[in-house]
């Protein structure tokens, strides 16, 4: 089986700049251009680093579609709503703790530590009433 060598292709600077421009304007993704023009995506990345006005080596190019951006905004809105609810619940907890503290002072009983005492039955004796049969 004979193996054929691929012919080496050299792209002009104008062509390379055009490809970079297509990516920067958001017309096409790097992968789309690579597939459409049968070019290695690595070559396009090299051209981006070489000719891009905004992208430099070690910069990360993040491209989001509109739907991803909308989803991210919705998630950020949900996070803000949950943080608001948590803040409200924390205020309620603080209020209730303050009420227990005030009640403890007025009654002279530590309500926080006396949670296991038997409830008052109203009969005057502390013994449990058992039904007689």
Folded structure, characterized:
The protein is mainly α. Among the domains are: 13-51; 64-116. It is 55% helix and 0% strand. The chain is built from four helices and no strands. It has helices spanning 13-24, 30-37, 41-51, 66-107. The longest helix has 42 residues, at 66-107. It is rod-shaped and about 100 Å long. The model has no long low-confidence stretch (mean pLDDT 80).
Keywords:
single chain; 133 residues; mainly alpha
Secondary-structure element order, N to C:
HHHH
- Ranges where pLDDT stays below 50 over 5 or more residues in a row are none
In DSSP terms (H or I, runs of 4 or more residues), the helix count works out at 4
Apparent shape:
rod-shaped
Mean pLDDT: 80
How far apart, in Å, are the first and last alpha carbons?
Answer: 103 Å
Helix content: 40-55%
Q: Strand count, sense and closure of the main sheet?
A: none
Strand content: under 5%
Query: What Rg do the Cα atoms give?
Result: 36 Å
Q: Helix/strand/pairing class, anyone?
A: mainly alpha
Question: Would you report the number of β strands?
Answer: 0
Summarize the structure.
Helices cover 55% and strands 0% of the residues. By secondary structure, the protein is mainly α.
């Amino acid at each position: 089986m004979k193996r054929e060598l691929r012919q080496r292709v050299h792209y002009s600077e104008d062509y390379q700049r055009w490809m970079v421009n297509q990516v920067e304007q958001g017309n096409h993704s790097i992968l789309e251009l690579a597939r459409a023009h049968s070019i290695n995506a690595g070559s396009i990345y090299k051209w981006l680093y070489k000719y891009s006005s905004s992208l430099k080596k070690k910069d990360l190019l993040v491209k989001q579609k509109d739907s991803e951006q909308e989803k991210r905004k919705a998630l950020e809105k949900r996070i803000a709503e949950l943080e608001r609810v948590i803040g409200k619940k924390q205020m309620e907890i603080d209020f209730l703790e303050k009420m227990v503290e005030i009640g403890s002072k007025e009654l002279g009983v530590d309500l926080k530590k006396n949670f296991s005492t038997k409830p008052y039955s109203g009969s005057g004796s502390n013994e449990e009433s058992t039904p007689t049969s």
